[in-house]
Amino acid sequence: MSNIERPLSPHLQVYKWQLTMALSIVHRVTGFGLAVGAVALTWWLLAAVNGEDAYQQFQACAHSFIGQLFLFGWVWAFAFHFLNGIRHLVWDTGKWLDLKSAYASGYVVAAGSFIAAGAIWFAAGY
Question: In this structure, which topology does domain 22-123 adopt according to CATH?
Answer without folding.
Answer: 3 helical TM bundles of succinate and fumarate reductases (1.20.1300)
